[in-house]
Amino acid sequence: MRTVKATAAAVTAALAAGAAGIVAGRIASDAGLKAPAGRPLPGEPRLTVHSTAAGRITLTRDLATLRPGTYGLAGDASHAVVGPVLAAEPHSADTVVRRLERVTHGTLAPGDKVWLTPNAYVGDPGSALGLDHTDVEIPGELGALPAWFVPGVRDTWVIAVHGLGTTREHALNVMEFLHRHRFPVLAPVHRGDVGAPRPPDGLNHFGETEWRDLDAAMRYAVSNGARQLVLHGWSTGATMALHAAARSGLRDRVKGLVLDSPVLSWELTLRALAAARHTPGVLLPLAVRAAQGRTGLPSDRFGLYADRTVPDDYHGDRTDDAVPARPQPPTLILHGPDDTIAPWELSQRLADAHPDRIALHTVRQAPHAAMWNADPSAYEEALRRFLTPLM
Questions:
Q1: In which element (H, E) is residue 244 found?
Q2: Cβ contact 145:190 at 8 Å
């Protein structure tokens, strides 16, 4: 009888542990599947404003506040832009002084909680950059998709697609540059964004389903005069661009891809996001399995989205539909080794495997999807060199 009771207790404990593991994995998977637009990604620190003065702001000392470049500084009711660290200013042991470029809206006061964001501009192309634009609606698979269209004289259109944790305002960083070079620019939202249709399951799919909204934007562009397309995507927007260039019925119109911080392995990115939320390492595989169960995402075995490039340490099966099935067009990847969300090594491996058609512009000391922010001039020069043959 004692043996039976002990066995029953052990089975009950195992079942309870298994159920707890499933629940924990599901919660951990929310780090990627429910990443809200316009909010900091896990791991991006909340900072405190210590003081402001003319052209200067003092923030909590952190690796984030020591980054070079230009960033948006977002609060719950404010947005500003900060420039480089002001080395000549006095810094305390726990603060950093950066140049305060402008306060876009709201106010900054001592004690305010803020975070750095790649979005250096807020608003629309008109209010943020003074560019003439039209608000258009793209007929999408799930419903109408709002988009900004900035006209240009070329028949090569750039479609700019944001990714995890940001909004279409992210495209404003490069929109003035593209307009100056006379490219028409289309910046759409996609499913799950504010103002866009909600995904049926309410979850992000790391580009696996969202690419169909990019496909709709491509159809809109071609029906309105675009002869050629350049897809410029950040983060999972770059993943969407890869999928569209391989699967879209208009893939032959795609003459170039610009991939900023591409998510080439949704599994590694999900693990990174969950780990940044302090998920114990033992639960990370459960988070991946939970994400697969909730979304139907195919296993990518750590980097199989990228043009059938298989990592050296991969031994196993894969789903062919998870990767492009045809050669990709000329591609510029902008990425760096300090990206803790999407591994730079996968971008490097991909570029090394296809040096004839993939160029890698390495950006150091930049977080995920902030390659422009770290050095806008160098980013735009790399972009100019890539786009010149496509003009």
A1: helix 236-247
A2: yes
Given a contact cutoff of 8 angstroms between Cβ atoms, the answer to whether 287 and 365 are in contact is no
Q: How many residues belong to the chain?
A: 391
DSSP string computed for 119-130: ----S-HHHHH-
User: Could you write out the DSSP letters of every residue in 279-340?
Assistant: --GGGHHHHHHHHHHHH-PPP-TTT-TTTTPPPTT--S---GGGS-SS---SEEEEE-TT-S
319-352 pLDDT, tens digit per residue, is 333 444 456 899 999 999 999 999 999 999 999 9
d(CA 50, CA 241): 41
> What values do phi and psi take at 117, rounded to 5?
-140, 150
CB atoms under 10 Å from CB of 293, counted, come to: 13
Nearest-angstrom CA–CA distance, 15 and 221: 54
Global pTM reads: 0.89
- Cα 335 from Cα 237, distance rounded (Å): 14
Cα angle: 226, vertex 231, 236; to 5 degrees: 145
> At 387, which helix (H) or strand (E)?
helix 376-387
